[in-house]
Amino acid sequence: MSSCFACCTNTGVQVFNTDPLLEKRKISELGTCSFVQLMGRSNFIAVVSGGKNPIFDDCTVSIWDDAKSKVVAQLKFKEPVLNVKMKPSLMVVVLPSRIHVFQFLPEIQKLASIDTKENLTGICDLCAEPGRDLLVFPSHSVGSIQILTVSVACLAREVSTSPLVIAAHKNPIAIISLDSSGIYVATASTKGTLIRVFETTQRNLVAEFRRGADRAVLYSISFSLDSSYLCVSSDKGTVHLFAVKDSVQNRRSNLRHVVPSSGSAGSYVASQWALASFTTPAECPTVAAFASHNTIVAICSDGSYYKYIFSVDGSGIINREMFDNFLQLAMSSPENDF
To answer: Per-residue pLDDT averaged across 123-141, rounded?
Structure first.
């Protein structure tokens, strides 16, 4: 998780420090929004208007420069903008059936346009690592993902390398998440029971984790900074924690030694289950991510803020350290930079 997070409210955009939880900025000049994306702790924020009092239409990406307290650039499209990903070198804009890739700094320039299958939830991720420009999104084949390397130097509006395709699930892709280095990508389908982790270069399956047996809508998948752990939030009101690199920490069924490994029953009992979990409000959209190596923060759409500390010794011990409501926080700092 970035050290800051932003949310769209009925008065505009609010920016918070993640840990410790502090409100850093209110931006009412942008009107109400349907989407907001920070670029780390930089002064740039991407916003898509929406809600009750929008200033712009939902086909426009506005770039707010907080150092200048104004919109410094706008990108207009013919279709609604469903997602935006940013880092200093690149910006990615996701439309219902196309992805546009732009150079961001020192100036915005279009690099590539990629036709995709219908992607009405804007599923996409961009590697945050400087110099590693991996872009991942659903492939045309059901349950598959496509990995592209997009280059800032590619000003001819072409993709720099041939795409890699990974057949990740049998059902349509619902969520994709890269680790910070771009070495691993985690995926889940619309069924929401299994999370699979793949290497982005060799396309090898690294791990398969079972969230549960019932269908679920997954809200977020996040890697820890060193990719040792992964956490998942869903509409079931539970955040699950899995060990990626030291898989012996994950729980397994006691029946795995007596049930044949073949067939659906064998696959089920052989699954790796979460080493720890905690609850959040059910059916309340929640983003969970790592604030440090052994700290998970969960941000809920109702304003709930949870901070949990877990043991890294595989014991499964996890304790709540803090609960608050970030929407009820008073302004903690008059400074505009964050």
So the answer is: 95
Q: Which two tokens stand for residue 256?
A: 């795995």
Cα torsion 113, 117, 123, 124: sign? negative
* 3-class DSSP string for 257-276: HCCCCCHHHHHHHCCEECCE
Distance (Å, whole) CA 291 – CA 301: 18
Beta bridge partners of 54: 31
Which pair of structure tokens corresponds to residue 120?
Answer: 């009405």
248-306 residue pLDDT tens: 999 997 655 444 555 555 466 678 999 999 999 999 999 999 999 999 999 999 999 99
**Ramachandran area for residue 287 (φ above 0: left; ψ -120 to 50: alpha; else beta):** beta
Query: What's the one-letter identity of residue 307?
Result: K
Contact 218, 234 (CB under 8 A): yes
Handedness of CA 58, 299, 2, 115 (dihedral sign): negative
pLDDT, tens digit, 9 for 90 and up, residues 81-121: 999 999 999 999 999 999 999 999 989 999 989 999 999 99
pLDDT in tens, 214-257: 999 999 999 999 999 999 999 999 999 999 999 999 999 765 54
Distance CA 276, CA 280 (A): 14
- Amino acid in the structure at residue 166: I
Rounded Cα distance, 186 and 223, in Å: 9
